[in-house]
Amino acid sequence: AVLLRDKMTVQIPDDSDFTSFKEQCENLDGWTARYNKGGVTVWCRDGEETNSVQKLKMRIVCKDVTAETLYDVLHDTSYRKKWDSNMIETFDIGRLTVNADVGYYSWKCPSPLKNRDFITLRSWLPLGKDYLIINYSVKHPQYPPKKDYVRAVSLQTGYLIQSNGANCCTLYYLTQVDPKGSLPKWVVNKVSQFVAPKAMKKIYKACQKYPEWKRKHNPNLKPWMYPEQNTLPCISLSELSLQRADSLENIDESGLSEEKTHISDDDEGFSKES
C-alpha cells in the first residue's frame, strides 16, 4: 500500500488512505507474531527488522469497553496526561479541516537514550462500526527541532477500532516510525516484546476508567465529534511541508549497552519485571 508520505506534498488523507490503512491492519500476510498473551498480539513486518524503520502492528480485544469510548480516549489529550506516563507533553497546534489537525507529542526514552518528539498531521474518520485515526510527520515553521530532543519521524501510524457488539471492541495499532538515531538492537527488540504490549494494556485500562473521569471533566466537550466545539486556530496546508527523515540529524546510539539503561519504576516496558 502506498504510504501517505510517498506523495510528494503534504496531503490530508482521503477515503482511499483510510481504506488502505484498515486493510494493512487486518491483513496478516508477511507479518510475524512476536508476542501473543492476555488478549494482546504484536506483529513485526517480515524481513524488515534489519531496517531501522521497523513496522509494528498490535491488536488488543477490549471486552468491556465500547468502540466509542476507545475512540474518545485516543482523542482526548487532557485525559492522555492521566494514563500515558511515557508522554512528556502533547498539544494541538492547529486545525486543517473538521477531521484533520496538526499536533506536537514528545516522549521519554529510557536513559541513556535521548527523548524523542514529533510534529504530526492527524486525521480521523468514523466509518460505520469502525473508527480510524491516522497520522504522519510534517514540518511546521514555528516548531523546529529542539536542542534536547531527537525529532523522530512517523512515516505512518494509526489506530483502527472495530466494534464487536454492544460492549466490546478490538483495537489495532499500526506504526512505522523512524526514531532517528541508530538505535541499539536490544531497544528494537524490547519495544516489540515489552513496551508495545504494556502500552496496549494501558490504553485498555484507561478506557475502563474514562467514562467516570469524563463525567467530572467537561462531559460534553468532544471537539473530535462536534467540530463546532473546536477552538484551534485554522492553519493551511501551504504552511506545512513533509518531514523527511534524511533532512534530520542522525544520532548514533547503537553502542549504548543495555546494562547502562537507567530503569525507573515508571519506565513502561523497559523495566525488568515485564
From TrEMBL:
<dbReference type="GO" id="GO:0031514">
    <property type="term" value="C:motile cilium"/>
</dbReference>
<dbReference type="InterPro" id="IPR002913">
    <property type="entry name" value="START_lipid-bd_dom"/>
</dbReference>
<keyword id="KW-0007">Acetylation</keyword>
<dbReference type="Pfam" id="PF01852">
    <property type="entry name" value="START"/>
</dbReference>
<feature type="compositionally biased region" description="Basic and acidic residues">
    <location>
        <begin position="257"/>
        <end position="274"/>
    </location>
</feature>
<keyword id="KW-0282">Flagellum</keyword>
<dbReference type="InterPro" id="IPR023393">
    <property type="entry name" value="START-like_dom_sf"/>
</dbReference>
<feature type="domain" description="START">
    <location>
        <begin position="29"/>
        <end position="212"/>
    </location>
</feature>
<protein>
    <recommendedName>
        <fullName>START domain-containing protein 10</fullName>
    </recommendedName>
</protein>
<keyword id="KW-0446">Lipid-binding</keyword>
<dbReference type="InterPro" id="IPR051213">
    <property type="entry name" value="START_lipid_transfer"/>
</dbReference>
<keyword id="KW-0966">Cell projection</keyword>
<keyword id="KW-0963">Cytoplasm</keyword>
<dbReference type="GO" id="GO:0005829">
    <property type="term" value="C:cytosol"/>
</dbReference>
<keyword id="KW-0472">Membrane</keyword>
<keyword id="KW-0597">Phosphoprotein</keyword>
<dbReference type="GO" id="GO:0006869">
    <property type="term" value="P:lipid transport"/>
</dbReference>
<keyword id="KW-0813">Transport</keyword>
<dbReference type="GO" id="GO:0016020">
    <property type="term" value="C:membrane"/>
</dbReference>
<keyword id="KW-0969">Cilium</keyword>
<dbReference type="GO" id="GO:0008289">
    <property type="term" value="F:lipid binding"/>
</dbReference>
<keyword id="KW-0445">Lipid transport</keyword>
<feature type="region of interest" description="Disordered">
    <location>
        <begin position="250"/>
        <end position="274"/>
    </location>
</feature>
<dbReference type="InterPro" id="IPR041951">
    <property type="entry name" value="STARD10_START"/>
</dbReference>
